[in-house]
Structure formats: structure tokens, C-alpha cells
Amino acid sequence: MVEDLLRLARYWGYRIATAESCTGGMVAAALTDVAGSSNVFDRGFVTYSNQAKIDMLGVLPETLAVHGAVSQEIAREMAEGALAHSRADLAVATTGIAGPGGSEFKPEGRVCFALAQKGKPTRVETVEFGAAGRAVVRKAACDHALALLMKAMQ
Asked: 82-104, pLDDT tens digit by residue?
């Protein structure tokens, strides 16, 4: 799928950025695992801490205080911040609870995604992957983020 995604990005002339928390750079790694991705992939932001989200992406402290790091609001600000702080046309963001842990209100396996695209409204969604284990949730979140990028180009 990644090779097809990169091929479509080249065709449309898109550059891609990532803003990742719970996936810790896995989406960027998947994109850069393919030779020649440098003409499509601009940069990746791994913003695991709240302060990194603020410093690197311009996430508002107020949004973090009201909604918490695992929220569609933060995913939106992360994706839009990645666009603003890069030369990309498309940016995908991931923030969630891979586990172990979670709470009644934010369970393990919840991941919020955002896809920001120049000239289009930012799309956000939340996926409940369940308490499948940290590695499984992170891999599923990475795959979902790549699918969102692919869908944006079709």
C-alpha cells in the first residue's frame, strides 16, 4: 500500500508530513522505508509529550487542558500544525492510548486521527482498536493513518 500511496502522491504533486504521538514515528518510518520517498515525504514530527506538541506543532495549551492529549481536537491541531510547520500539502496526525492503561473515559486502544490538506477542511476521526496490546494498537494506528493518506489522494 505504501508504494501505491507514494506513487499517487507523486502523480498529484503532493508532499506529506506526519505528526505522531502514540505511533512514535511509525508512519514516517513506513513512508521512508520505500526508496525514493524523499520526493514525496517532507518531514515527520514525533511529539510524544504535551510540551513537544506545543513547541513543535503549535498545539494550544488551552486545548490540551480542556480536551486532553487523546482527543480529536488535539489531533486536528497536530495535523494543521504539521502543515503550517512544513512544506507539505497533506499531513496526518495520530494521538492515542496504545496501552497498557487507559481509563473509563479514554480506554486503551483509542486513537484519534486527523488529516489536514491544503485548501480542504481538516477531517478527524476516532478509532477504538480495543485492548489488543501496545504493539497491535500501534501497528493498526499506523496502517489506519496510511489508509487516510491514501484515501485523500483518490
From this structure: 999 999 999 999 999 999 988 88
